Structures are given as C-alpha cells and as structure tokens.
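Two proteins were folded this term; both appear here.
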Amino acid sequence: MVFRATLLASCLAFAQQAQAAPALGAAHAGQERGAKVQSNEFNLEGEEQFARWANGDHSIEARAKGRIEFNDDDSDVKSISRGGHLRIKEERGGVVRSLEVVPGPDGAPQKSYTARGQRREFDAEARAWLSSVLPLVIRHTAVAADTRVQRILARGGADAVLDEISRVETNSAKLIYLRQLFKARLSADDLQRAARLVARTVSSDGDKARFLVESLGSYLGGEAAPASFFEAVNSIRADGDRRRVLAAVAGTKGLSRANLLRTFESAKGMASDGDKAGFLAGVDPRELGDAGVAAAFFEAVDSIRADGDRRRVLSTLLGGRGLSRENLLRTLRSAARMSSDGDKAGFLLEVAHAGPQDASVRAALREAARGISSEGDRQRVLAALAQE
C-alpha cells in the first residue's frame, strides 16, 4: 500500500515493571510468587547486559558479557567465551552472596564464590544456591537467549520456547527471546500463539508496538494476517504507539484487502482524535477504490469527534491524487455531519473552489451547505459554488 505518512523509528524504553523473582529454592521458600518488584534497573542490549531488581530486603544484581551457555536445566554455566564474564550478587535478609564466572586457562568456566564477605569454595551449598538463583537471572536479563532458544527449540519446538517466554520476567527480555524465536520457521499456529502472548503478557505499549512492527514480515505475508496479530495491535492502549504500528502495516507492499479492512477497524478504535486523524490523513486516496475498504475508512473518519481533525483528513484526501467521485461524495457526507460551522464551511469552500463539474457532487455540496447554521458561512459556500 502506498502510504504517505513517515514512519519514524524510535528508541523505546527497555524496562517496565516486572513481577518479583520467584522463590530461590528451599532457602527462599518464604517469598511470595508474583509480588511486585519495588525497584529495577536494566540494560539488556549493550555489550554488557546488566540487571538489578529488588523487593524488600531481597535484591539481585547481574552482569553478563560475551557468549555464555548454560546446561540443560539452567542450573550451571556450561561455557563462556574468551573475555566474557558472568557476575551475580544477591542480598537477602542482610546476607550477601556473589559469584563471578570467567573462562579459565583451559577455557572451562572458572568460578569465584563469596558468602558473608568471605571467599568460599564452590561446594555443594554454593552449587545449590547457583541452581536456584540462575534461572531468575536468565529470565530477567535474557543472557544467552540465542543458545537457550536453539536448545529449547531442538528439545520441544516453538511451543516450548513460547512456554519459556511466558515465564520471562521483563518486557525487554521477552522481546529478546521473541526475536530469537522468529529467526526460526514458524507455523501459523506458532504465530497465533506468539501474538496472543504479546497481547496478554507484554505490559509496555512501546515494547509491544516495537515487536509488532519488527514482525510484520512474518504476519502479513499471506492473504490475511492471523486475527491474533490485530488483537495484539488493538491491545495497545497508547494511541501514539498504535498509530505507529498501523502506519507500518498500511505501508506494507501488497497489503491484502482483509488486512486493510482490519487496519481501518483498528484505527476507528483509537481514542485520540489527533493520532487517528494523523494516521488516516496518510492514506492514499487510490487505496480506497474498493467499496468495502472505502466504507471502513470513512467509518473511521466519521468516528473523529474533533471537527478540526476530521477536516484535516478530508482536506488531505481532497488534495490527493486519484480521489474518485464516489469517495468525494463520501467526504461531503462526512463534512455535513460536522457540528462546527467554521470547519464545515472551510472544507466545503475547498470543494467549491476546486470547481466540481459533476452534477451529483454539486448537489451534495449544496445540500451540505444548507446544514450550516451560520448564515454568513452558508452564503459564502453557496456563493463560491455559484461562481464556479
């Protein structure tokens, strides 16, 4: 679809409110699952991944650099690349434990463990601690997401990866896992489930919009995108973010009629007149040749309550190329429903000055002018029409 609106790429916030870390083995059995994290800091996409989150007297800080692999049950570090490291620090009830993992002289992971400020052997107690804290670190930071996704895919397919993503704690980490998953060949069912997972579990509208824009190629390749894709779009409450996704959808080459209809239906549901008008004003009139598509488009236009914003859309259509007689008549009917005499008269004057020769258009213009309450505005439109 030809789309005149410019799609601006934006940096979206990486971290949103997350759920508290689940209990860390038997020693942490008292912590309630699902308690809100009170503070967090994240930077998951730099050279060094960093995350720190806290809940009451329990906090975890993790840093990871390089290529890291974990064993099959995510209880230990399997390998770490040269120059890489994994550092974990946990404080709970005043007790501090920390671990640094680096590649040793032979390349095997080398661990340095401390507890209560004292260097300790990495013994059975330390291994039990690491096996309980490591899954939390993995799910907050998405460290080694590429190797984990490949391992989980090989073992259980896309469903197993999506199950794991549903347990990932932060929006940013979910997106990292989803990007890795979408490198694989996914079935229609996999795509449906991924979109539903995004709609229901990604709380950040910005992160949600970013994923949907990134994954357009996977979803819009067929005649109709899965309904779940537009469910995810419609779950975006921030109209600026939804507008950005709809603009990207509308700008997709060869967009099908079904997807175009769903795009306009989604736009109609936006609460912000400004964002709605901004999106609709970018639609090329030549894309409205199908009667059903045009009807859906003008339903969205008519849902704009602010007359100034509605007029902006109608004026842009009028100034575009390829506006058909039928759609010109639709613009006049939409203008006739405006409550503002100034905006209504202003648009009707634009049409009149364009010198419409079609009798039906001139009749519709005259009829719309009769609905202007202001005598002065009404006469200005009728006078302009008489001069053409």
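Next, the second protein.
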Amino acid sequence: MWRLIYLLILTSQLCLAEKKMTSVLNPDFDLSQLRGSIFKLQVSSQKLDYKRPWQGSSLRQSSGTGFYIGNNRILTNAHVVSNAKNIMIQRDRDDQLYHAYVEYIGHDCDLAIVVPVDTNILRGIQKLSFGELPKLNSPVATVGYPTGGEQLSVTKGVVSRVSNRFYVHSGFNSHVLIQIDSAINSGNSGGPVIQGSQVIGVAFQHLRAGENIGYVIPTPVIERFLKDTQNGSYDGHPLSGMKTLLWTTGSKAVQKYYSLKKSSGVQLAHLAWWAPGNQHLKPGDILLKVAGKTIGVDGKIDLFGERISFETIYDLKQEGETIDFEVSRNGQAKKVNFPITKAPAHPFGPYEHRRGSQYHILGGVVFTVLSLDWFATWGKNWSKSLPTFLKHLFYSSNFDQDFYGISDFVVISHILPHKVNSYYSSYESGVVKSVNDQKISSFIDFSKLLSSTREQFIKIDFWNLPLPMVFNREKVKNIEEELKKNYVLDSLVVNKKFADGAVQRSDVE
C-alpha cells in the first residue's frame, strides 16, 4: 500500500517537473502568424582582392534569412548581403524568387535593410514588431533557414547571458548582445529570434569553440540602427577613442594616491587624437559615473538588468546627442558633458566591404591604403602573423603621437616585377612616411603628390624601413603603358573612395 502511494507521489512530481520544463522551453508563439513575414535570401557575392586591388575574388553563393519590418523593408544581417552582386528573396511557402537590393547597411552593427525591386509582393504581409531585451533564462525561438534543409527551421532555447562583446563581421566593434543556448548555424543569420509574439533580436553569430553558444543582436542595437537611417543615410555607432584601465582603482595605494574615497571607477589611460571628448576628458581622469550610473572597478554598470561595460551607454548614442561623465581629476570630483560628434577619418575602422580600393602603381610598385581588409590578406590569424611594426600600427597608432593627424597609412601591397623595380623586392609591406621629404597624412595626398611632382627623382621614405625607395621620374613614366599591357590593367591610379560593395537600387533598375 505504502509502495503504491510512493509511486503515485513520484509520478505526480515527475509530471509537474515535465510541465515546468515545458513552460520554460516553450516561447509561446504562434508560428503560423509569423512565418509569412520571413524570407530566405539567396546571395551571389564577390570580395575585393586587397593585395591586388584592381581585381576581385571568385564569385560565392550563400544564403541567409530576413524578416519584414514594415515600409517595404526586410531586416537581415550585413554579412548576409555584403559585397552582393545579386540578391534574390523568397517568402516562406512561396515558390517564386524576387530581385532585391540593399537600402541601408551597417557593417559595424552587422545589420542591413533589403528592399524588393517590386514592392507589390509585400502587400498584405504582417510586419513583425520588436520587444524589449529579454530576461535571463527566459524562453526564445530562433527562426530561419539554416544548413540542413530547405524548409523553415525553428529551434528553441533560453537566454543565457546579456553582455557587450565583439561583433565578428566588423572585425572592430563591440556592442551589447544576447547569448542563447539554441543553435545558430549558417543560414540562420538575419533571422528573427522570437519571444511571445515579438522579435527580441536578430540571429547573427555563434562561438565555434563552445557548444550551443549562439549570439543575437538585441533590440537596443536594432532600434539605434533604424533611427540612424531616418535621415536617409547610415552614420554608424560613435567611437569614443578612449582606452581605459580596469581594476586598478581597486588598489588601496591607487585610491590613496588619487584621493579616492572608495574603490570605484576606471582610469582613462589614453585618448585618440580624434576622440570627441578630447577637450573635456584628460588622460589620468578616473571615470566614476556615466549617464548617472556608477562605474565599477571592472568597468561595468547596471544596465538592462545586468552588469555590462559602461561603454555601452556611449555606443548606443546617436551623433549629436550628449554624454555625461562624472570624473575624479587631481582628487576633485568634476562633471563633464560633451556632444558626440562624428570622429574625423582615422587609420583603422571596421572592414570596409567596398566595391573597390584606392591604389597607385609607381614603377610596378603597388601602393594602397592600409586597412583591416588589407591585414586580413595575411590569413585568419593575421593579428598574430603581422610583422611587429604593423601590429604596432594596428594596436597603438591612435595613441602614438608620431601618427597624430594621419587619416590613412599607405602601404606597399604588391610589386609587379619589372627591371625598374627589381632591386626593391624586400620593400613589400613598407609603410610610407614621406615623399620627397613631405610627410604623408592620407592616401589622397600621397597619390596627388606622386602625380604632380616635377622632381627628377621620387624619393619615398618609410616608417618601418631604414632606406628610401628612389625612382627616376621619367623612367617610371615611360614604362606605364608597358605595365598596363603586361598586367592587363585599366588604370595605374585609382584615388577615389568607393561606395559600399552591396548591390544598390541603381544596380537593379
């Protein structure tokens, strides 16, 4: 009898546990109401060869996901449509493909807006609405077209973490993101992550080194992107140009030295020469608060119900808005307020994903702009493979006074063999310092100076090479047509900046 009662109690407990687990995993949404607003994107793309910037790589076919957000717009990831030559969209349960183009693209936040050429196909489609940042351990569902089949796929999971982390596509930026434990695979990118009947983010990357670690672009970043595009262009997330030291204010000695009353804040170690806060903040300042929120010794603040980097506040601002800091300077508390302005051109930003690159070929020596895209030609582990000086430029050029005011570094990316340059094979990867003793601050200046000089000799000095490169101006002029013919070059000089590489409206009309 007692054994029977025990089994009944145990069975009841198991049923309750199963019901509780089901309620955690079930995001409680009606897929039939949402799937008509979801699209598969089929993309043909071609990247630029930054070592040989007059040519492109082979054509690549890929796919991703997007969803309708109203006003004839489909939201997806920037990396899904980057360098796209052709974009076709297909609505769930529809057998027709439709041409589309990129209206706006934000490589820094990995978001893009795609519009079909024939907007009539969007009539009657329900737009998906956005919800707030979800709580930890709350259920979500990832919807899209991942590898493994042709049909729409749904995977369920929970929110594992909210943090500020690196966005892979840009190779440069960090923003707030959501970590979930449901699978995000190739093809899921750009698809909605659903909670209830609302979108709480866009699936965009996963951690290969772990299991079931997927990342989602949350609504604060999405809303910032959409607001940024309201004026007809995308300006991007603001860059602070600040470099801070974490944890140091936890030291009793540091607290006493800087007359701090308690363990709090982070030290401002450097400000880039282009930083918007240059006239208001100073290296050595201890940042105590941002927007009224206390900054811990770990550089984190209470935001969205979690502790994440204080720079998230700055990162989500729009150009023209203001930022408030409370700092300790020379032992005195001070309030600082300044507008967030667009930073002037500076040497290194996100991957560009452009239609073409600037270059100037002099005597068969190919000069181009030093960029993350160029660094990437050194392979996946380029940050470790680069020569020491190039690493220094990447990590420290914004804070090294020798490089203040330089908007572009010019590098030798390739040498087209010719008797005029046969002695210069070891100069590849040289970074230009000056031309005929005139310091170079941009690629445009460099190219114009080479084209306009009337000196008998052209002397090019480098930051990372002990001796200059010297050419006889007349001799290099005389071999220009020979170089163009031998290496099938349309032009030896391209000094204009190109537009984004993704297919635009003018390309499809």
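Residues 355 and 501 are 4 Å apart (CA to CA). The chain has 13 helices and 28 strands. These notes refer to the second protein only.
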